[in-house]
Write a structure and sequence with these properties.
The structure is a single chain. By secondary structure, the chain is of the alpha+beta class. The chain has 13 helices and eight strands. Strands 1, 2, 3, 4, 5, 6, 7 and 8 form an eight-stranded mixed beta sheet that branches. β2 and β3 form a beta hairpin. The longest helix has about 50 residues. The two termini are about 60 Å apart. InterPro entries: A/G_cyclase, A/G_cyclase_CS, Cyclic_nucleotide_synthase, Nucleotide_cyclase.
Length: about 400
C-alpha cells in the first residue's frame, strides 16, 4: 500500500473514530462510529445535491440550503468529539428531518424525498447509545408517522420551486438514499464483526487466565453450575519444594529484587511442570507445590514428578552459575490420596486436602539441599525406573518416623 493510501486510510479511520474513548464499551464505540459515518454521509448527500443544482439550475436557494445542511450534519461530529453522545445522535436525526422538510417544501412530494423517512426510521437504532434507547424509539415512531402523513397528504405537498424536473429529483433522492442505506448497513455489519472478534479475543484471554488458575474440569463445573464438587483422587503424587536459608536471603535483598528472583525461578518451574505433565497447585512464599494425576488417571504420575524435580534442580544449578544470589532448594515427593476442590465464593482458589499433603510437606522438610527426597509409597512406584538410596526411617514432626529415599 502506498503512502498516499495509508494516509487516506488513517484520515477516514480518524474521522470514524472521532469521540471514541478507551474506557468506552465495544457496543458504545460501534454506535458512535455509525453516528460519525452517518454524519459524513449526510454531508455527501447535500454536496451531491449542490452539484446537481449547479449543473441543472441556477437557483441560489438550493446551493445555500444544502451548504447549510451539510454544515449542520458536521456538527454531529463536533458533538461526538466533545463527548456529547446523545446530543450528537439527536442532532443527526434533526438534521435528517431538516433535509426532508426542506426538499418537501422546495421540490414537493413528487421529488421522491419521502424515501428518506425509511432511513430516519432505522437510523436511531444504529446511532443512539443504549442509555438513550427511549429517545431512539420516539424518533423512529415519529419517522413512521411522518411517512404515513406525507403519503396521505401527498396531493397537498406541492413544489415551491419548479426549476427542476421531478423525475430527476426522484432518481437523485432514491439513488442517494439507497447508497446511504447500503453504506450504513455494510458499515454496521463490519463493525459488528470487529466487535465479535474483539469479544472473542477478550474471552480467549479470560479463558487462558482461568486455565492458569484453575484446572479445566473445575472451570467447566463453575461455568455449568456456578459451583464445583470436591473430588477424591486415589493415585496422585505431590511435589513440594522449599529454599534453604530463605529468611536470611529475604533480609539481605530488597523486596522488589526478591519478587523478581522468585518470579524468574517459578516461571521456569511452571514451564517444567507443563513439559512433564505435572500441574502446579500453588506457591506460598518460597514454597512451590505441584501434583500429577489430577486431570486424568495415569500410572506414571510419580515418575513424572521425579523428572520434574530433576529438571528443577538442574535449572537452579545452571542459574546459580550466572546469578549473584545462589538459591539452594530441597524437594520432597510423596504419593497417595487427596481431595481436590475450590473453597470460598470469591477469589476462587483451587487447593488439595488430606494427609498426603501434610506428609509430602514433612518429606520435603526432612530432605537435604540439592536432593530429591521421597516417601516409601513414591519409592514403590519409581524403583524400577530410578536408582534410589534408602535413608531408613527419619523422624518428622507430627508424623513420627517415616521411611525415606533419595533419588540419585
Amino acid at each position: 500500500m502506498s503512502t498516499y493510501d495509508n494516509n487516506k486510510s488513517r484520515f477516514f479511520q480518524g474521522m470514524v473514530d472521532i469521540g471514541a474513548k478507551n474506557n468506552s464499551s465495544i457496543t458504545e464505540i460501534r454506535y458512535l462510529r455509525v453516528t460519525n459515518i452517518a454524519s459524513v454521509l449526510g454531508v455527501i448527500y447535500n454536496a451531491i445535491w449542490m452539484l446537481v443544482a449547479f449543473f441543472l439550475t441556477d437557483a441560489l436557494v438550493i446551493y445555500v440550503s444544502n451548504a447549510l445542511l451539510g454544515l449542520i450534519f458536521l456538527m454531529a461530529l463536533i458533538f461526538n468529539k466533545k463527548g456529547w453522545r446523545v446530543l450528537a445522535s439527536i442532532w443527526l436525526i434533526l438534521a435528517s428531518y431538516m433535509s426532508l422538510f426542506l426538499f418537501l417544501y422546495l421540490l414537493g412530494y413528487s421529488s421522491g424525498v419521502e424515501v428518506v423517512c425509511f432511513l430516519i426510521i432505522i437510523l436511531p437504532y444504529m446511532t443512539f447509545p443504549r442509555k438513550a434507547r427511549n429517545i431512539a424509539h420516539a424518533f423512529s415512531i415519529l419517522a413512521c408517522l411522518t411517512l404515513i402523513v406525507t403519503v396521505i397528504f401527498q396531493s397537498n405537498i406541492t413544489a415551491h420551486f419548479g426549476g427542476l424536473d421531478p423525475y430527476i429529483s426522484q432518481i437523485v433522492n432514491i439513488s442517494i438514499t439507497g447508497f446511504i442505506c447500503l453504506i450504513l448497513i455494510s458499515s454496521m455489519s463490519i463493525l459488528i464483526d470487529k466487535s465479535e472478534e474483539s469479544l472473542m479475543a477478550e474471552q480467549k484471554k479470560s479463558e487462558d487466565l482461568l486455565h492458569n488458575i484453575l484446572p479445566a474440569n473445575i472451570i467447566r463445573d463453575l461455568k455449568e453450575s456456578g459451583k464445583t464438587i470436591p473430588k477424591r483422587h486415589k493415585n496422585i503424587t505431590i511435589l513440594f519444594t522449599d529454599f534453604e536459608g530463605f529468611t536470611e536471603t529475604v533480609a539481605s535483598i530488597s523486596a522488589i529484587t526478591l519478587v523478581n528472583e522468585l518470579n524468574d525461578i517459578f516461571g521456569r518451574f511452571d514451564e517444567i511442570m507443563e513439559e512433564t505433565e505435572v500441574e502446579k497447585i500453588e506457591t506460598i512464599g518460597d514454597a512451590y507445590m505441584a501434583a500429577c494425576g489430577l486431570e486424568k488417571e495415569m500410572t506414571n504420575h510419580a515418575a513424572n514428578c521425579i523428572r520434574a524435580a530433576q529438571m528443577m534442580l538442574s535449572y537452579l544449578e545452571d542459574r546459580n552459575k550466572s546469578h549473584e544470589i545462589k538459591w539452594r532448594m530441597r524437594i520432597g515427593i510423596h504419593s497417595g490420596t487427596v481431595v481436590a476442590g475450590v473453597v470460598g465464593k470469591k477469589k476462587f482458589a483451587y487447593d488439595l486436602f488430606g494427609d498426603t499433603i501434610n506428609t509430602a510437606s514433612r518429606i520435603e522438610s526432612a530432605g537435604e539441599v540439592g536432593k530429591i527426597n521421597t516417601s516409601s509409597s513414591t519409592y514403590e512406584l519409581i524403583k524400577n525406573d530410578f536408582t534410589c538410596l534408602s535413608r531408613g526411617k527419619i523422624f518428622t514432626k507430627g508424623k513420627g518416623e517415616l521411611e525415606m529415599y533419595f533419588v540419585k
